[in-house]
């Protein structure tokens, strides 16, 4: 698997001037070429290279490989949206590859500039140290004009262990009030993220109303703080979830929440909080950490997970009288709604495990229950909707494991 490694560059003043010129010319060339691509209605990078390669070399002073990379980036951006010419920010990244850059040992990198190569030292943290020897492929040079720092984003090729079929599943329910709740009962609250969002929203609103040079400087310093706090929170939550699954030899089951923003309707006062919900980022962090640890991840249908009773299988909207509480209208089982949802997610994950590891002719007994290793019926059975397995509930006459 590939991991992105962030390196902090330490250029001297002369190297800084050379890199700033690269950033300026590279993005100017991209915006020029974006206009030409839109006018020609062409996203073919070979055609664009044949028509405008010489202009990028002569008019903008780009090196041969840097011109090729600029053309490839413009073609890819225009191909994604052909309704308008793409725009490239002056603070965007400059793409390098193996032909115009090279990592030299564990602390230096050689980068092509308009005036020749420069060798720039870089530093990194202890977490990145094991990955330095595995850097390969594309490098992205980025200048943070807010802090005047230079960063290099590199790709490390990391081997992943083989994953077998897990014996059990840790279900994870993703939410807004509680960012994540697992089937063991562990809860990761979103209160701190919401409080921080409100503080920064008020601060930005007040500074924008002031409209002075000092307020604009403060706005630049505030830029990205909430996103960084939220990203750090998601990293810590995902690390704990993967560690819990790895330590007990379990897989992880997550809800497939694609399209949830379009399906869900929220009150006006809740719109900002709902828009700030970074469930996809948390899911991505769990997935790549799990893959690196050799923990399999399954995505299950999220429908009715918080309205299904894990004891009797009764599904009803009134099983969840409030946002936080679950109480089965049939058998009376009660508990926190997010925990109940996580249990149901875990069981749907077990259905997927059974479907993946068992031969098709051996997956069920004559009574319709999934088989276990000794050939008898499993205490869980498949709940279906439209012929597709969506989860599991307990078979009649068995007791809940939770």
In short:
This protein is of the alpha+beta class. It has ten helices and 16 strands.
Descriptive report:
- The chain has about 400 residues and is α+β, with helices and mostly antiparallel strands.
- The protein is about 40% helix and about 20% strand.
- A seven-stranded antiparallel β-sheet has the order 2-6-7-1-5-4-3.
- Helix 6 packs parallel to helix 9.
- The C terminus is likely disordered.
Instruction: Give helix % range.
Output: 25-40%
Whole-Å distance between the termini? 35 Å
- The string of secondary-structure elements, in order, is EHHHEEEEEEEEEHHHEHHHEEEHEE
| Strand order in the largest sheet | 2-6-7-1-5-4-3
| Assembly annotation | single chain
Q: How much β-strand is present in the residues? A: 15-25%
The dominant shape is elongated
Biggest sheet features: 7 strands, antiparallel
Number of strands: 16
What is the average per-residue confidence, as pLDDT, rounded to a whole number?
82
H/I helix tally: 10
* Structural domain tally: 3
Return residue spans where pLDDT drops below 50 for at least 5 consecutive residues.
362-402
**Alpha carbon gyration radius:** 26 Å
């Amino acid at each position: 698997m590939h991991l992105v490694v962030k390196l902090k560059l330490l250029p001297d003043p002369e190297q800084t001037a050379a890199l700033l010129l690269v950033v300026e010319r590279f993005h100017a060339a991209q915006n020029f070429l974006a206009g030409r691509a839109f006018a020609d209605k062409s996203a073919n990078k070979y055609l664009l290279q044949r028509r405008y390669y010489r202009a990028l070399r002569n008019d903008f002073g780009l090196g041969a490989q840097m011109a090729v990379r600029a053309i490839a980036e413009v073609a890819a951006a225009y191909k994604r949206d052909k309704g308008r010419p793409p725009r490239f920010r002056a603070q965007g990244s400059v793409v390098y590859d193996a032909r115009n850059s090279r990592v030299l040992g564990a602390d230096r990198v050689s980068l092509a500039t308009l005036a020749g190569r420069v060798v720039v030292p870089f530093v990194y943290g202890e977490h990145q140290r094991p990955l330095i020897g595995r850097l390969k492929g594309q490098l992205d040079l980025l200048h943070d004009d807010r802090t005047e720092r230079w960063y290099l984003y590199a790709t490390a090729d990391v081997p992943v262990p083989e994953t077998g079929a897990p014996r059990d599943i840790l279900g994870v329910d993703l939410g807004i009030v509680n960012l994540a709740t697992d089937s063991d009962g562990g809860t990761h609250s979103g209160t701190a993220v919401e409080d921080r969002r409100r503080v920064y929203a008020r601060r930005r609103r007040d500074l924008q109303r002031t409209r002075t040079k000092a307020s604009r400087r403060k706005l630049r310093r505030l830029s990205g703080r909430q996103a960084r706090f939220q990203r750090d929170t998601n990293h810590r939550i995902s690390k704990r979830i993967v560690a819990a699954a790895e330590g007990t030899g379990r897989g992880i089951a997550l809800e497939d929440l694609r399209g949830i923003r379009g399906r869900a309707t929220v009150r006006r006062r809740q719109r900002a909080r709902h828009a700030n919900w970074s469930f996809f980022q948390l899911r991505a962090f769990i997935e790549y950490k799990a893959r690196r640890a050799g923990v399999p991840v399954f995505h299950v249908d999220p429908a009715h997970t918080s309205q299904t009773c894990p004891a009797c299988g009764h599904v009803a909207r009134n099983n969840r009288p409030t946002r936080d509480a679950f109480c089965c209208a049939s058998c009376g089982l009660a508990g926190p709604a997010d925990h109940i949802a996580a249990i149901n997610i875990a069981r749907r994950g077990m259905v997927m495990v059974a479907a993946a590891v068992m031969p098709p002719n051996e997956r069920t007994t004559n009574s319709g229950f999934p088989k276990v290793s000794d050939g008898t019926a499993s205490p869980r059975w498949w709940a279906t909707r439209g012929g597709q397995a969506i989860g599991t509930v307990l078979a009649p006459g068995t007791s809940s494991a939770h």
